Amino acid sequence: MLYHLFSYLDKAFDFPGAGMFNYISFRTGMAFILALLLSTMFGRKIIDFLQKKQIGETIRDLGLEGQMSKKGTPTMGGIIIIIAILVPTLLLAALNNIYTILMIITTIWLGLIGFLDDYIKVFRKNKEGLSGKFKIIGQVGLGLIVGLTMYLSPDAVIRENIEIKSKDTQRVENVLYAKKDVKSTKTTIPFFKNNNLDYADAFKWAGEKAQEYGWILYVAIVIFIVTAISNGANLTDGLDGLATGSSAIMGITLGILAYVSGNINYSGYLNIMYLPGTGELLIYAGAFIGATIGFLWYNAFPAQVFMGDTGSLTLGGIISVFAIIIHKELLIPILCGVFIVENLSVMIQVGYFKYSKKKYGEGRRVFKMAPLHHHYQKPGNAGIQAILQKPLQAMPESKIVIRFWIVGIILAAITIITLKIR
Prior knowledge:
Helices cover about 60% and strands about 5% of the residues. It is mainly alpha-helical and about 425 residues long.
């Protein structure tokens, strides 16, 4: 809103200072600061309100170190993150940008699903929360909205990079871009010399219909990614600050990728496709980073508030949709490695337990407990039938969180340098 107001004032009246709002870097910095202030200053009031309404976390005793001390801690704190993201975005971003609109829809859509889940758990006293199938329906619905918008919107386009090679050495001497923006199912694939992958290439046998089938595959992949990563973030939210800090790291990385993809000079230098309009996503990224870091003020160990599904589902959805929008969804297995490993640990644990129960008559485990972060919280050789018993001593919660953050930082660095490693 402020962006459009000051743009008008600058053009119509040459209003002093209004031209600053034309700079993405200025609005990104402002979005970050505003989100940080909102999440820290107004976050305290929201926490006090949650405490007053006795909206506290119910804890099952799983024998984890320090677990029962969390009982009664206010939950549904994801509201703080959502407000701190939306307010700066609505004020400072270009609201006629299709990518900004998609990110706002994602934030509200998954925020409502998570809020409904938390509401059922807290106020209806139903520990199961919202039925799993309804969560999946909501995630699939969002995936459809994002995928179909990328297909149908005339503003969701790319400009493919064209390599100019030396005749003698066949080395790339320059990178040019097509004169026209085009609709495309192409995305960035890491570690390959020509790192543009077209989903339609899987259907070359279909002839003229290959592009149509490519879009169908694209939408299916979008649905899968949104569902997997939002659930992964939800599972990761089990230790104080773990999901919040990991999301902030991913947000910084995605902001960098959006900036270089939306700037034709940096895109040309990195030899990646140019995505007109994605530079505007940097304002949203600034708000996202500020909101998550500000939330850590209260969510870091020992947590004064939990984000609940209101926050965790939203964070995972935001990260996945952001990566899809900038055509970097195939980098998600690297960037979101922490979320994916948490997801896989649960799938492995449940799958092996069912298999061993059927084969041996009793269920056996791979990890002491899943998701993976709880494996490190539980001591080994404590009457637990698990293949992996190490570490034998339970690790302090804060150490587990910081080590997961470090892994996340390493994965973020690898994600960025894949643009040059081919």
